[in-house]
Design brief:
Layout lengths: L17 H12 L5 E7 L17 H16 L6 E5 L2 H11 L6 E5 L21 H18 L11 E7 L1 H11 L17 E6 L5 E8 L12
Parallel strand pairs: 1-4, 2-3, 2-4
Antiparallel strand pairs: 1-5, 5-6
Helix pairs in contact: 2-3
Length: 226
């Protein structure tokens, strides 16, 4: 899922028809389709919950998820799947969104759980997790990026549209990595609850950011960032 030349074993190149054979093998490794990645931040949730199971969506959060689901459905796209964080607030957001997208399969993963991806630069005074958290969460969130954010498989014939419901830190880090920006700057981005971030990955590997944290489909009194 990287540069096609990196997927071909050059040692096996035929000496007589080397260039011709190489070109043929490269064609079989080249992506043909475009991937559209929709990164959704979970809706507002109960901040007083001590355990994850207690951090359920607030009534406003449920309204936000309904608005996000309605917005995604109104795009008229054929979504392939919804991959979501296994944390309660992301799972509940997914359940509400999926009502607006009947038939789209849902997949839960621990890779997209919230965490501390990398120490921010410049540092901030109001958020200082233990150093070990960057090592534990950072490796997992980087694995999520590598696993989910890549060009289409060479066998994929049509463009795909995928939804990922997860968390602000995860989305901000993924955006920085996908655009080849310094990932340490992730904390400079801000995302509203229930917002939509749209990444496009072309067959040649080029990535474009269509929208970042869009909540223009919500009434102003429904918008939060908690």
């Amino acid at each position: 899922r990287r540069e096609p030349l990196a997927l071909v074993n050059l040692k096996k190149k035929n000496e007589e028809t080397g260039e011709e054979e190489l070109a043929s093998r490269l064609d079989h490794c080249k992506a043909k389709a475009t991937r559209h990645i929709f990164l959704i931040r979970h809706s507002q949730y109960n901040l007083d919950g001590r355990a994850d199971k207690d951090r359920t969506l607030t009534p406003l959060g449920r309204e936000q998820a309904e608005l996000t689901g309605h917005r995604l459905a109104s795009l008229g796209l054929k979504f392939d799947q919804i991959i979501h964080s296994s944390m309660t607030r992301a799972t509940e957001t997914t359940e509400i969104i999926s009502k607006h997208l009947p038939g789209v399969k849902k997949i839960s993963t621990d890779l997209l759980r919230e965490g501390a991806p990398i120490e921010p630069d410049p540092p901030v005074s109001h958020w200082k997790p233990e150093a070990v958290q960057y090592y534990e969460d950072g490796a997992r969130i980087e694995a999520a990026f590598r696993n989910f954010i890549h060009r289409a498989d060479a066998k994929q014939e049509e463009d795909s549209y995928e939804i990922f419901v997860c968390h602000a830190n995860v989305i901000r880090y993924i955006v920085c990595r996908a655009l080849q920006f310094p990932p340490e700057g992730w904390l400079r981005l801000s995302l509203n609850n229930g917002s939509i971030t749209h990444l496009v990955i072309r067959p040649n590997g080029r990535v474009a950011l269509r929208t970042l944290g869009d909540t223009g489909f919500m009434p102003p009194d429904k918008i939060t960032r908690t």
